[in-house]
């Protein structure tokens, strides 16, 4: 899929009520978006797909919903206060701000495009090293050495590279002088770590076990690009899996495979996924991999799987003074109980908005069709039926002769189980196209014959095939096609 198609996807998302720029009447707010009437349904369904796969299908994984605000010490213990920053650089002429590493990544991509593979590899290596060492001077040197210019001003008049903390802060308490600086959480994971013992004790959980959570996270990204790919307010779906030290490698491999399979079941094309193993690891991780998706602008991170050792629990234990340990009464090889320890953690972390974007991009199709003997194009979203915003649309052929009443009766019979759409305006062909554009898998048309023999026409979104079926059979046909088994079994 090309970048041109991506532009179409973005405007389609707005035109059909999937995603709107935030506060659009005030010209929007940078990298913040709202989900519209169809977007919210698709997003809810994707969240449900994740939630069911995690909690319903694993008896040793339970969910929580922690608050966005957390005690400020949380972010000290997690390392976010001191280390959650991106290197930024300003161009003095255009006054534009950039992420220093991003400028270098773009240069690497350009070298690769021009066939300068060796140069690209060398720069990638130097960039990785500079980032790992947090060596800001070296980042500036690389920018100068590779003669990187500002895309706006075209000059190389750069400031020094500085660190920019990505956390949003605010004050808690009504009185300014009593105010305490707190942060909007930059990840949902810490809400799970601080509740580790609460859940373990009250749920009588035995290691290995997991805690899952979905919710908003906030990052003051320096540059926001590619629509909902990189937002300042976004939603994460994270699961922390607590394991016995020494078994983390096994569980890391388990989750690496399980998560890729989960993505593949969406049917967006197996060739559109790949692993990106982290060669250089953060000091607390002993293994990390990204699952990347082939977005129209290239393969980019969709989900991260990280083996985080006992870094988070150990730091929270130290800073809070509360023991965050598990008593393991299973016997080791020598016949003694494993006893007390701080569990190791393997985490899976996926961005719901990025997942939404992947589904939208891969299911957006412009197809040539024949319409009344003429060539025509239709836009269709081939979203898996169980995830589609509307499952079925019901149309009376005309607004009279009792046809709307029959259509309404059909909807009344279906609406507890399925999201239904009713429409009686315009020609049937036009109504079909509007449903194709929002991904409705089934349309049912009520006509005069329906009054005589209790049958309707069902039209399938993907094949555009039409069939005459008995009204009494609608429920069975829908139940066969719209169910979680197709994704979860
Ligand atoms: P990136 O390298 O793209 O900034 P990250 O490695 O910082 O991502 P994590 O901290 O591992 O991301 O977060 C886990 C997941 O959360 C990511 O895989 C991504 O899907 C999602 N995510 C992270 N930052 C954003 C953002 N600004 N907007 C939307 N989704 C995000």
**N/C terminus separation:** 30 Å
Number of strands: 23
Sequence stretches where pLDDT stays below 50 over 5 or more residues: none
In spatial order, strands of the major sheet run 3-9-10-16-13-12-11
Rg, nearest Å: 26 Å
Oligomerization state: single chain
Helix content bin: 25-40%
Supply the helix-strand structural class: alpha+beta
Q: What is the overall shape?
A: globular
Strand portion, in percent? 25-35%
Bound chemical compounds? adenosine-5'-triphosphate
Report the sheet with the most strands, covering strand number, pairing sense and barrel closure: 7 strands, mixed
Count of helical stretches: 17
- Mean pLDDT equals 95
Notes on the protein architecture:
By secondary structure, the protein is an alpha+beta fold. It is built from 17 helices and 23 strands. The chain has helices at 3-15, 37-56, 72-77, 80-83, 100-113, 117-132, 136-145, 189-193, 196-202, 248-264, 311-320, 352-363, 403-414, 428-438, 448-453, 474-481, 485-488, and strands spanning 19-21, 33-35, 61-63, 85-90, 97-99, 162-165, 169-172, 180-183, 209-218, 233-243, 273-277, 287-295, 298-307, 326-331, 337-341, 344-351, 364-371, 374-381, 392-396, 420-422, 442-446, 455-460, 466-470. The protein has a seven-stranded mixed β-sheet with strand order 3-9-10-16-13-12-11. A five-stranded mixed β-sheet has the order 20-19-21-22-23, with helices on both faces. A hairpin with a 5-residue loop joins strand 22 (455-460) and strand 23. The longest helix has 20 residues, at 37-56. The structure holds adenosine-5'-triphosphate. The site of adenosine-5'-triphosphate has 16 residues, from strand 10, strand 13, strand 16 and helix 12.
